[in-house]
Structure prediction request, 209 residues.
Amino acid sequence: MPDIKKYDRILDALQQLLEDKTIQNISVSDIAGKAGIGKGSIYYYFPSKEAILDALIKRNYEKPLKTAKNLAEQTEISPFTRMAMILQACRNSSNAFLNQNHTTPDTGASVQDIAYLHQKYMNHLIAELKPSLTEIIKQGIAAGDIHFEYPAALAEIVLIVLAVKLNNTFLSSTAEDSEETIRGLVALLEKGTGLPQGTLNYLTLPAAD
Prediction:
């Protein structure tokens, strides 16, 4: 049976190494040395360095994403309120990604490194949040609150825009620019789903610290 403590030590080791080295320059041997275990033990838990990085990303965002998933089951709450909470989770996890992995251009990290981490982050975020957001949209459609034929596509579009814009890696922009993009997205959501103008204004509130 896998040793959970050793598993976490491996993830902690990679997290620490990422503070000073690029992904390309980190080897499985480096991770093993930092974790204080043999290199062979690494492969008992992970088939590759890539798998370790995937697991680290998953662990970093486990709490906000779990909260978001639970919202799909809370049908007593308005679908719009739950959508807002999903989008807030997206913002929070974006901030966590930037803060924990130091992937801003002024940290000295390579452009390739930043892009690689960002891609992995986006893939995980969208894959994890899309089913929950889709279910909430479907519930809104069933209740007659939302009028739209493609709930899964709508969920994916929203998450892609937020993941790209809020992360501020591919498209560097000011906080004001990001808020303007979100306001535009909200306006499109209202128009496309048949909602009265201003219904989703609360989605444009600044992210919590």
Notes: The CA atoms of residues 186 and 200 lie 6 Å apart.
